[in-house]
Amino acid sequence: MTPERIEEIKHYFTDEQLDEMSREYRTMPTDGEGYAIEPEYEGMVARGNIVKLVSDVKTARAALEESQQRNGKLELYVKSLEFNREDTQKRANEKLRERDTELGEAQQTIARQQQTWKKLRDVVSTNATGSSGEVINDYDIMLNIMDELEGGES
Predict the structure, then answer these.
(1) CA distance 32 to 36
(2) How confident is the model at residue 120, as a pLDDT?
(3) What is the CA radius of gyration of the chain?
(4) Which of 34, 78, 119, 141 is 20 to 30 Å from 55 by CA-CA measure?
(5) Helix or strand (DSSP H, E) at 61
(6) Do residues 128 and 140 lie in contact, with contact meaning Cβ atoms separated by under 8 Å?
(7) Per-residue CA distances from 107 to 8, 99, 102 (Å)
């Protein structure tokens, strides 16, 4: 049965009407003087069936309301999970952007340092006397240190 159909037939009888019907069919009919009239067997069976049906309708209605409440809670829970997922995704994207920015900045810094190193090495290399028997100067020492540093990195 669809939810639309349930809503359509849900209020054929109110709870008060069902209670009144149940009371009416549980009580024995009386004559004009207030004495109970013994109904026929079929009448008693019908009365019992009506009372049982009223009870079943009330039980089903309570189960329907409980189910609808549970569905409402589940919908709220799902929305909460979706919000949390979206929020977590936003934070993860922000962290990723921050790391990308930091990585870009670090790569730029490395490139600048490499350029500075190359310029410094060129200056030192130009001013070094080399191993041609000349007097070793500070540039020769620095060039040797730079060679060792570069050799240690690779």
Answers:
(1) 10
(2) 86
(3) 46
(4) 34
(5) helix 41-127
(6) yes
(7) 68, 12, 9
Taking the C-alpha atoms of residue 123 and residue 127, their distance in angstroms, rounded to an integer, is 6
For 27-40, where are the alpha helices, taking DSSP H only?
none
Q: Are 72 and 80 spatial neighbours (Cβ–Cβ below 8 Å)?
A: no
DSSP 108-137: HHHHHHHHHHHHHHHHHHHH---SSSSPP-
What's the token pair of residue 152? 């240690």
Three-state DSSP class for residue 34: coil
Token output for 92:
């993860």
What pLDDT, in 10s, does the model give residues 79-130?
A: 999 999 999 999 999 999 999 999 999 999 999 999 998 888 888 877 776 6
